[in-house]
Amino acid sequence: MHIVSNYCGAHSVPSGMTVNQYAEEIVSTHIPTLKRLNESGETNATLIDVFYEKGVFERTETIRVLKVLVQLFCYFLIIFRLVLKSACR
Predict the structure, then answer these.
(1) In which element (H, E) is residue 50 found?
(2) Backbone CA torsion sign across 66, 26, 31, 43
């Protein structure tokens, strides 16, 4: 059995924040920190989840988070390729 870690920070927006504020926090703080932790071996998150749904992370925020993921974690491109391809048209 192979168990992988999944970062689910983009599943809901904390109270007191807008979706845009939280998306900014994710792309400017969470994802870079996760990359650093992965590189140092402190964690091994192989999946990063964005809850793409009306009222949570909608198209604009989802694309923003996924683009940063692709820039910092090239291997996520394969997982999210279809989403990015159709969403970026």
Answers:
(1) strand 45-50
(2) negative
Strand runs labelled E in 1-89: 5-10, 45-50
Helix (H, G, I), strand (E, B) or coil at 76: helix
Other Cβ atoms less than 10 A from the Cβ of 48: the count is 24
Q: Which amino acid is at 45?
A: A
Question: Which has the closest alpha carbon to 34: 25, 24, 45?
Answer: 45
Size of the chain, expressed as the number of residues it contains: 89
Residue 80: pLDDT band by 50, 70, 90 thresholds? Answer: very low
- Render the burial of 28-46: b for 16+ CB within 10 Å, e for the rest: eebbeebbeebeeeeeebb
pLDDT in tens, 17-44: 999 999 999 999 999 998 899 889 898 8
